[in-house]
Design goal:
By secondary structure, this protein is of the alpha+beta class. It is about 55% helix and about 10% strand. The chain folds into 2 domains: about 100 residues, Orthogonal Bundle (Arc Repressor Mutant, subunit A), CATH 1.10.10; about 120 residues, Alpha Horseshoe (Serine Threonine Protein Phosphatase 5, Tetratricopeptide repeat). The chain contains 11 helices and 7 strands.
């Protein structure tokens, strides 16, 4: 199987063996473009992506050269999966080829968001800086943000505060200038009782907007931070330290004192442990 990973650095494997022989940057970018864009594509369109400022005949000639270089780098077995007809080119879309971003799209469409996010949560092709890469890198971040938003909403509805905050934080990391993402994080931190962290998230947004865009947060965001600053202070809720109810040992069968010493202890507010149950 030919495996092509586009998130992070471009990585190409054939039957578990990494292919390192594609030295040409142009050929690597061409392979990445064909892997990212599923299906067969007119040669004219592909040539225009990579050589937009030359005549069509020259662009098509350059494309032929890049394809030949790519075939040599892939080797005979892998290059058989590179489809290049007279008018169209692409990478086979079948069981012999796996591409991370393609699988992420499939999983997201099937509602398997956690698995999809695991494949696409990262920057696209960090070792390439072509114009098409920069555009699609932004698009991939947006798709990851949508998955994080859906996962965070689901966690919040299920009462999983920790997961809801974690997804919101990651969404802000992907787009530090997004006021919408930051407001979601601030609200969730506020509901968790961590008002200080919510205000810190606002201050980080305010600094980023001023530094990168010369702007200030919107009235909606400023109103939210004022509400959080003026809200009654409550201890932050950490699901791992919520006191549990003392569980009672079953009446039968009787347990030895050794077994009794391993019975779970409850955590009291403030971190103190309840005394271990004594065997009778």
């Amino acid at each position: 199987m030919l495996r092509i990973c586009l998130v992070g650095e471009l990585r190409v494997e054939l039957d578990g063996r990494r292919l390192e022989s594609i030295a040409s940057r142009q050929a690597r970018s061409l392979l990445a473009w064909l892997a990212y864009h599923q299906g067969l594509h007119p040669r004219t369109r592909v040539a225009a992506v990579f050589w937009p400022d030359v005549l069509e005949t020259s662009a098509r000639a350059s494309l032929r050269t890049a394809l030949a270089t790519l075939r040599r780098g892939l080797g005979e077995e892998a290059s058989a999966l590179l489809l290049a007809g007279r008018d169209r080119i692409g990478i086979e879309d079948g069981p012999g080829v796996w591409v991370d971003v393609r699988d992420a799209r499939r999983l997201a469409a099937a509602g398997r968001r956690d698995e999809a996010l695991a494949l696409c949560d990262g920057d696209l092709l960090v070792d390439l800086d072509d114009e098409w890469v920069l555009e699609e890198r932004r698009a991939l971040r947006d798709r990851a943000g949508e998955l994080l938003m859906a996962l965070g909403d689901a966690a919040e509805q299920a009462g999983d505060v920790e997961a809801a905050v974690r997804h919101a934080r990651r969404r802000v990391e992907l787009d530090p200038l997004s006021e919408d993402a930051t407001r979601v994080l601030m609200r969730r931190l506020g509901r968790a009782g961590d008002g200080a962290a919510a205000v810190a998230a606002y201050e980080a947004l305010r600094a980023a907007l001023r530094r990168d865009l010369g702007m200030v947060p919107s009235p909606e965001t400023r109103l939210l931070v004022d509400e959080l600053r003026n809200a009654p202070r409550t201890p932050a809720v950490d699901p791992r330290t919520v006191p549990c109810r003392r569980r009672l040992a079953p009446a039968t069968p009787c347990r030895s004192s050794a077994a009794a010493s391993t019975w779970p202890r409850c955590t009291r507010p403030g971190g103190a442990r309840a005394p271990a149950r004594r065997s009778s």
